[in-house]
Structure formats: structure tokens, C-alpha cells
Amino acid sequence: MTPQIDPRAGAAVKAADRAHVFHSWSAQDLIDPLAVAGAEGSYFWDYDGNRYLDFTSGLVFTNIGYQHPKVVAAIQEQAATLTTFAPAFAVEARSEAARLIAERTPGDLDKIFFTNGGADAVEHAVRMARIHTGRPKVLSAYRSYHGGTQQAVNITGDPRRWASDGAAAGVVHFWAPFLYRSRFYAETEQQECERALEHLETTIAFEGPGTIAAVVLETIPGTAGIMVPPRGYLAGVRDLCDKYGIVFVLDEVMAGFGRTGEWFAADLFEVTPDLMTFAKGVNSGYVPLGGVAVSGRIAETFGKRPYPGGLTYSGHPLACAAAVATINVMAQEGVVANAAVVGAQVIESGLRELAERHPSVGEVRGVGMFWALELVKNRESREPLVPYNAAGEANAPMAAFAAAAKAHGLWPFVNMNRTHVVPPCTITETEAKEGLAALDAALSVADEYTE
Ligand code: PLP
């Protein structure tokens, strides 16, 4: 049941937002943010009584849904006991969060450096790699997202994000596998895997292996389109890193903590990086938290020598208490298994069935609760439904698609010509079916723009 809320209160919230909030990644005068009155589980609602099934998990972070009572209670209890404490002290919530995370990360990623979110986790992983190797360069993939701070935005393989910072010296991008848009070079996943590994090794050779500190990859690139890498790719990158003494960093900020139907996406591919970044799902985004899981070998570099980096709120007790409660909820309530089972049996099969009926769907790809539909004008040519970085009239087909989804009670994730299906990992079968029905209606609108 959506509580009755006064629409006038919503108007006041909206007016203050428009007057004073400077929004991320937006032209301030061209946006119209929804005033949100509340949220619970897989749903949120506005002040006019409209209720939406959230197929976005916020920005892919509410892996256990909104307002889980056990996590809310843990935050309240921590606030009552010890709201905050400086990072140099051992604090129960921090120690316990680190222990629970280290227990779940692959291999010997057993030391946890806490940050405030994902971008600063990437910044610190890269700093650790540079100091550990004594080398300057970082290699990362085009079609990736690693965060909005100076270094992380440069490591991000998307020119729309670089803005005035430009591409930083010392960051080199390469082409990771993406068969759907690589078909002139490869026809099978295996060929695409070989192409991508050969390209990476050539890039390493031309850049000079002795100059490269780290290869940074999202285990499954998320924001850029949920491109599940072919079997063998990440293991191949692991081998190349070992061969050339390069630190392998996997960014699990979006893919981690149950999203893929495993605790970490690295588990799907049976690879262990040297450093692994996380954020978002670690506590479902209830309080900002991120971190780097550090392998024994890299931790040793900083055994007798100080690590030159830190944050005032590193391992903030409120955020860590939320992480402890979230991880316990995930373990006790079978959230990871739910992502795998509802993901495969309802979401995946439902999306594949939609793709058969809707000509606007060019490709369905993903795993667990981590799916993307590539919307196209024409399935043969694979021309995207809207051009790269389209705005205004040029973006009309995606805008119409999104409006139709919302009219059917579904809040969709829309990124360029794609819709990502990334609901909470706790979503029920019934809710998932409800979302798929709304998606069906919205895709009929997208179909009108196909040729
Ligand atoms: N890395 C990845 C893979 C992400 O998806 C994101 C955010 O979407 C980030 C890093 C940045 O995280 P944050 O926005 O918490 O700084």
C-alpha cells in the first residue's frame, strides 16, 4: 500500500530542489527530478500517489531493496551507541564489516581499506598499484565506468565523462570484448575473446610492460552496457598481468554483492585479482561506503612502510553497521541465490521472450539481476535506436520508451540506446513478472521507431 501523501508537500520539495540542488551529470535547467515521498522493498512512490516498481535499484545499489527493517534497525542502534569514530581506532562495526567482507572476497583479498564510495576506491586501488610496482601507467577498457573523481573519471573509458579534465597522462584505454559490436572482427565469443586478449597484449607491448602499474577492469562492465565477458577472457588477463608483473584490479562496485547471482562477479569466472574495489551493494547504499579488498602480496608492501592515503570517514561506523546488517540479511535470507534463480527463471527467460516479439530489441545480455536490452532501429544493421549521446528530439524514441514504462508503473534504467534491467536482488517472482509486463508495453512504443 502506498501511503497517502499531500501533493503540496511534493511541490515544496521540488521547488527547493530546483532552487538549490545542483544535480550530477545534468544541465541544471533541463531536468525535472521526481519528488520521492517514500520507498519500501522493490517500490518507491511520489507525493501524488504514483507508485513505481524500481528496475534500477537506484543507481544499481539497493541490492536488498529499500528500507529493510533489519538494516534500518542496525543503523539506529549504531547511531545510539557510537555514531562516529576516527579511522585510526579499532571499532566493532568496522572490524566486523571488514571480517565479513574478507570472508566472502575471493582468494587472499583479506585486508579491507574502506572508502566513502566507488570512485575513491578506484583512486586508492590505483595508488596502491603504482606504489607496489613503482610504475606509472594504468590500462583500462573503453566502454567502462569507474567513477566521477579526477583519476577515476580518466580511467573511465567514455569520452562523455572526461569533460574538462581531459584524458590524464598515464591512462591508456583498450578494447575489451563486446561481440555484439565487434562482429566485423569476430563472429563467436571465442574469437572475440582471442581478439581482445591479443589486442591487450599488443597494447602492453607497445606501451612498455615495465611502465604499466595496473590493468583496471569492471568484472562485468555495468554502466557501459552489461557486457558479460566471454569465458576465458578474465583468466587470460590474469595470465597477462602475471607475465608482465602488472597489478590486476577488478572493479566490482556495481557487479559485487549478489548482483550477478554470486557474491562477486569474479566468482563466476573463477578469477582472483590483486585488488578488488566495491561499494553500492556492500550495504545497499543505505549509508555511503566503498572499499578496496587487498591481496596479501600488496598488503605486504605496506607492512613496514606507511600507505600514503586516507579519508576522515574511512570505515564510518554507521556505514559499517549497515554493511554488517546487509551482509547478514543477504546470507540469512538467501538474497544471492534469489538473484541467481529469479534472474535466470523469470528475468532472463522473460527478456528473451520479449526479444522474440519486439523488433526494437537487438540483444539481450546479462546474468543474475544484471541485464541489458540493446534497443535498435534495425536488427540486421544493429543501428542503435538513438545515436550516441543523443539529446532532445534525437533522443525521442528512448524518452517515449521511458515514459511508457513509467505510465505502466515501472521505473526503467535508460542509458543511451539501452535499458538495463537491474532490480533489487530481493525481487520476488510476482514483482519481476509485473515489471516484465510493463516492459512489454514500453517496448511496443520503442517498436514504433524501428525501420
Ligand atoms: N566503479 C563502477 C564499476 C561503478 O559502476 C561506479 C558507479 O556507478 C563507480 C565505480 C563509482 O562509484 P561511486 O559513484 O560510488 O563513486
Automatic annotation (TrEMBL):
Family classification: Belongs to the class-III pyridoxal-phosphate-dependent aminotransferase family.
Lineage of origin: Bacteria, Bacillati, Actinomycetota, Actinomycetes, Kitasatosporales
Gene Ontology MF term list: transaminase activity
Regions annotated as coiled coil: none
Keywords: Aminotransferase, Pyridoxal phosphate, Transferase
Protein name (Swiss-Prot/TrEMBL): Aspartate aminotransferase family protein
InterPro entries for this protein: Aminotrans_3, Aminotrans_3_PPA_site, PyrdxlP-dep_Trfase, PyrdxlP-dep_Trfase_major, PyrdxlP-dep_Trfase_small
Naturally occurring in which organism (per UniProt): Streptomyces lannensis
